[in-house]
Amino acid sequence: MSFAASVLTLYPEMFPGALGVSLAGRALEAGTWSLDAIQIRDFAIDKHRTVDDTPAGGGAGMVMRADVLARAVDHASPPGDSRPRLLMSPRGKPLTQTRVRELAAGPGALILCGRFEGVDQRVIDARGLEEVSIGDFILSGGEPAALVLLDAVVRLLPGVMGNAVSGEEESFENGLLEHPHYTRPQEFEGREIPEVLISGNHKKIAAWRREQSERLTKERRPDLLGAQPLVK
């Protein structure tokens, strides 16, 4: 069974976007995964197709209505649908490679793209939406975040990456950032490829790469070192 993604959005024309080319695009054409971009306005309950209203308690901006979103979610994810329901949100739990792998191993996902000031909390609670963040910054809407999440997931689906081993050695797969990479030419503007990489000694190469990964992680993301034990 292929991975089925349903995206609830006010801008369905943003999809598949970048997901329609390269690895993800080829996998989409091959049926390895499917994408259904659904217009939230189609579930509005008035003739003006209103999806938002002023925030209770006052304040700037607008809030996406619970009743409209509930109708959209129920349409895209009827009873019996086992796919997780995700809401792209800056206050959500940070997306990790572990969570990406969990999603890739599942049947798919329903992804709600928020807009304006946010989403009425009642629909989050009533429909069991899992809030997910791709970083500590604010976007104009959840669509770019949904594209990022789907790209991360789709590349892990069986057969999408030409060399599955390459995915196992990437950043975050073993709790560390990835080591530096080099290729021809051997000399570039006075900079040489590290000698160990052209030595042919695979044991020394593996040790060097591990050392470099640990160094970069300590320098750039020391928080990862305390997140989980290092894999030896």
UniProtKB/TrEMBL annotation:
Its EC number is 2.1.1.228. Residues 212-232 are annotated as: Disordered. It is an enzyme of class 2 (transferase). Residues 212-223 have a biased composition (Basic and acidic residues). Keywords: Cytoplasm, Methyltransferase, S-adenosyl-L-methionine, Transferase, tRNA processing. Belongs to the RNA methyltransferase TrmD family. This is tRNA (guanine-N(1)-)-methyltransferase. The gene is trmD.
